[in-house]
Amino acid sequence: MTENLNNEGRVLWITGLSGSGKSTIAAAAAEQLRARGERPVVLDGDAVRAAIADSKTGHDLTSRLANAYRISRLAQLLAEQGQTVIVPTMSLFREIHEWNRAHLPNYFETWVDVDWAELCERDACGLYSRAARGEVKNVAGFDLEYDRPANPDLVLNNNPPLRPATELANELLQSALGLHPLSQRPHVVFYNLPNAGASALVPILEELFETQAYAKLSSPAETHRFSALLQSGDPVFHWTHHPLETFAAELEREDVRFICLTRDPRDVLVSYIKDIIEAGSHEGKPEQQLYQEAIRSGFNQWFEQAHTWRALKQPNVFQLDFEVMKTDVPATVRQILEFTGIPASPAMVNALCQKYSFEQITGRARGDNGHTLRGKFLYRKGITGDWANHFDGQTARLFQRRFGRYLRAWGHEPTDQWAAAHVQRCRDERPSTPFDGTLFASMLQLEQMTSRIHGLTGPSRFNADQQIKSLFQSKPRIDLN
Q1: How far is Cα of residue 429 from the mean position of the Cα atoms in its chain?
Q2: C-alpha distances in Å from residue 323, one per residue of 241, 265, 389, 465
Q3: 135-139, 146-150, 310-314: the lowest-pLDDT one
Q4: Kind and range of the H or E run holding 187
Q5: What are the structural domains, with CATH classification, of the chain?
Q6: Bridge partners of 317?
Q7: Which of 20, 72, 91, 345 is labelled catalytic?
Q8: What DSSP character marks residue 224?
Q9: pTM exceeds 0.90, yes or no
Q10: What is the mean pLDDT of residues 418-437?
Q11: Region of 203 on the Ramachandran plot (φ > 0 left; ψ -120 to 50 alpha; else beta)
Q12: Which letter, b or e, does each residue of 75-110 get, where b requires 16 or more Cβ atoms within 10 Å of its Cβ?
């Protein structure tokens, strides 16, 4: 199949002898594409001949060849304007097949194969019986030779036992476009740690899956409706922050795919605190105090949930690092589409990645300071490693003590020495401000006492469902990029 690199349309050329079923298959394929939101154009060979009504065009070889070129050029005209064109026609000339491959964008050639005896038995419109009696001439297979396609992209066997036209159309669309039948498309769950940068991917995926007639829930706060929505029969795309146990049953299903996005936990914390400060919810507290209070609070529960998701190794789970994703968003989207079996042209992927890029949404370059843009998604800075611009030495050491195991396990730091190195950088950048080791020791002692008290008084008051609900009560979706 010719690759579509310029957002052109495509031509599905369905050829076969009279009575092979090509027009019926084309109609079924067109109906399935319409169900997906497309508007294909069907150029049936007989219908085109009747519409043009050229009295000089008969059914002899010369006229048939001229009409075949006419159909091919019309298909080219439409496809180059972005249309999907389905062409059920005989046009059994080698030069037509060669011209098509050279000139038609996204050309896919299908030969509908039916034994000659079966065609005569079906005797579409009585053509073959009349030809046998000598009542009509210029019938391909009787008195006209024809060229079977030398290298068709697909051969559809339409001999008995006959298959429904919808099944043959499914095979055609899956081979030509990678489209699964509507009933076979997988459900897709996109998990990410809050503030892990899903705004760089989720809007793109939502629009792509919407073109495939996917149902979706409006936000992670609606995860409680997911299981019920699966029973509707439509494929579902859902973005969630919920813990893995919420989807225990779905993990065992072959028709569900999971995408797990995680990010350097230090950048997650920075995005979280920056959002609080900009929203005016920080009660005038200094930034470092906010970081350290968050480190001692329920963030451990969020990171532990993400760690459980990251540990999944089964084939229906796609693990994704924010840091890797940001280096090439279009490539990441293409990998996800291949993983889920959802088709999209490279031009469509590139266009959506541009439409939802940080630069396009915010009007500034990634890394530039500016107000967080709030809407369906939040956009702050769009970079990785921003924690180093905001942590002081004390915050770095405290973070390492509480969450260093995640940094190592997720591949962000090979050892625990990053915190000491950051402390040194802070000293080098601010030599006039001595590091208060006594205060830091006191803070660590207080943290140890707090941990022991929590151990004596029972489990943490952290509740995932309640946290997610509270996140989305004041702001419909919170996920900073």
Answers
A1: 44
A2: 19, 11, 17, 27
A3: 135-139
A4: strand 187-192
A5: 10-179 (3.40.50.300), 185-445 (3.40.50.300)
A6: 258
A7: 91
A8: G
A9: no
A10: 76
A11: alpha
A12: bbebbeeebbbbbbbbbbbeebbebbeebbbbbbbb
For the chain, the farthest-separated pair of C-alpha atoms sits apart, in whole angstroms, at 109
Rounded-to-integer distance, Cα 242 and Cα 223, Å: 7
- 91 in catalytic set: yes
Range 58-66, long-range pairs (CB < 8 A, 24+ positions): 58/138, 59/137, 59/138, 60/138, 61/138, 61/144, 64/90, 64/91, 64/93, 64/138, 64/144, 65/93, 65/95, 65/96
Q: Which of 251, 262, 143 is nearest to 201 (CA)?
A: 262
And the tokens for 477?
A: 């979706």
Q: State how far the Cα of 38 lies from the Cα of 42, in Å rounded to an integer.
A: 12
DSSP assignment of 408-455: HHTTS-SSSTHHHHHHHHHHHH-TTS---HHHHHHHHHHHHHHHHHHH
226 neighbors 240 (Cβ within 8 angstroms) = yes
The answer to whether residues 235 and 181 touch, using CB atoms and an 8 Å cutoff, is no
Quickly list H helices, 113-153. Answer: 116-122, 127-132
Q: CA-CA distance, 244 to 69, in Å (whole number)?
A: 58
Sequence-distant (≥ 6) Cβ neighbours of residue 98 within 8 angstroms: none
Minimal CA–CA distance to 270: which of 322, 203, 332, 202? 322
Element (H, E) at 216: strand 215-216
Q: What is the pLDDT of residues 325-366, one digit of tens each?
A: 999 999 999 999 989 988 777 888 999 999 999 899 888 888
Q: Backbone dihedral region of 186: left (phi > 0), alpha (psi from -120 to 50 degrees) or beta?
A: beta
Residue 445 has pLDDT above 80, yes or no: no
364-374: string of b/e by CB count within 10 Å (b at 16+)? beeeeeeebbe
Both tokens of 247, joined, read: 């989807």
